[in-house]
Write a structure and sequence with these properties.
Layout lengths: L9 E2 L19 H26 L13 H8 L7 E3 L5 H6 L4 H8 L22 H16 L5 E6 L6 H13 L3 E7 L2 E2 L2 E2 L19 E6 L3 H16 L16 E6 L18 H8 L3 H11 L5 H24 L18 H17 L1 H5 L1
Parallel strand pairs: 1-7, 2-3, 3-4, 4-8, 7-8
Antiparallel strand pairs: 5-6
Helix pairs in contact: 1-2, 1-9, 1-10, 2-7, 4-10, 5-6
Length: 373
């Protein structure tokens, strides 16, 4: 295991033109997986475009776009082993897809169907809309895995705004004290809704916050999928084999890592947001020059792994996959309003029964048209 990185040094493998940087080491990933990484990123971008369009047409509820953040999500999720767990926020559609959550299920959730958040068959926890609450859940799950002796790690995603929440600090402090097998992945997309990164913290980096809790912080170019894959792979390895890194940090926690992935969201915070109010077009265009998809495509073409025919085939496949998922999601019968009470706990509590009964009384009094349309 390599010595701890300085959290001020940003890890990068590909430059903005898609060429390997001088002195950089390309991670050990096979050719098939590299092409699959590109396909997943392209699918995420196409899905995102279609989802925003569906919301604008009134066919879906409020939706959080991810364009610009594909490299961070796909690169990190592909580093996971089958038994590892993902704790997402609300924007990790691409990471969830890599882990086996189909496009249709994601669409159903954002169309208001809680059954889309039923993830019993994959190692992905439900979407967490409250900011930073999943940090506590991830830390607890990682501690439980350690106590059971499981050979598994936990990868927890959150945005830069989450680092201003108490749950973030409490979760990381606990993770350091109990040395849990967790990787905390901060998608620093520069904006917490309308609040810029510089108003979130006076720290030079967010990654360095890990030092306050006794473990390693790593800064990475979040729009470089190979760099993200590399640092996440290393962090997961350390989480599962702390003895290998013990010599680098005697007396300190060795399992947890905080990764800060520098990136940008090209679109709005959600479809209920108007980013033109708080950021200018020049800023967006500057960041679009770092777009992760053409960067990886250039690299794959130069390696002889991709050509025009291959790109066209991938585009055709993902368009068909997303179109079929939209059709299936819209064909699904809408859930009853009271179904939402069935997806809070494994079994309904007395309090949930009371809330469901109260909703039924309101429906009888006012009618669904008044309440639900």
């Amino acid at each position: 295991m390599s010595a701890r990185r300085d959290p001020r040094d940003r890890v990068q493998v590909l430059d903005e033109d898609g060429r390997v940087r001088e002195g950089a080491t390309v991670p050990d990933i096979d050719d098939e997986s590299l092409v699959e990484m590109y396909r997943e990123m392209r699918l995420a971008r196409h899905f995102d475009t279609r989802a925003v369009s569906l919301q604008r047409q009134g066919r879906m509820g409020t939706y959080p776009p991810l364009s610009g953040q594909e490299a961070a999500q796909v690169g990190s999720a592909m580093a996971l082993a089958a038994d590892d767990w993902v704790f997402p926020s609300y924007r990790e559609h691409a990471a969830a897809h890599v882990r086996g959550v189909g496009v249709e299920r994601t669409l159903r959730y954002w169309m208001g169907d809680e059954r889309g958040n039923a993830l019993d068959d994959v190692h992905v926890f439900p979407v967490a809309v409250p900011i930073a609450t999943q940090v506590l859940h991830a830390t607890g799950a990682a501690w439980a895995a350690d106590l059971r002796g499981d050979d598994a790690a936990v990868l927890c995603y959150f945005g830069d705004g989450a680092t201003s929440e108490g749950d973030f600090h409490e979760g990381l402090n606990f993770a350091g004290v109990f040395d849990v097998p967790a990787v905390f992945f901060c998608n620093n997309n520069q904006w917490a809704i309308s609040v810029p990164r510089e108003r979130q913290s006076a720290s030079a980096t967010l990654a360095q916050k890990a030092h306050a809790y006794g473990f390693e912080g790593v800064l990475v170019d979040g729009m470089d999928p190979l760099a993200v894959y590399q640092v996440t792979t290393e962090a997961l390895s350390k989480a599962k084999d702390p003895d290998a890194a013990a010599d680098d940090a005697p007396g300190r926690a060795t399992r947890p890592t905080l990764i800060e992935a520098i990136q940008y969201r090209f679109g709005a915070h959600t479809t209920a947001d108007d980013p033109s109010v708080y950021r200018d077009d020049d800023e967006v265009e500057r960041w679009k020059q770092k777009d992760p998809i053409p960067r990886l495509e250039t690299y794959l073409r130069e390696q002889g792994l991709l050509d025009d025919e291959g790109v066209d085939a991938i585009e055709t496949e993902i368009e068909a996959e997303v179109a079929a998922a939209i059709e299936a999601a819209e064909r699904t019968e809408r859930p009853a309003p009271t179904d939402m009470f069935d997806h809070v706990h494994a079994e309904r509590t007395a309090q949930l029964d009371e809330q469901a009964a109260a909703l039924e009384r309101l429906r009888e009094r006012y009618g669904d048209e008044e309440l639900l349309e």
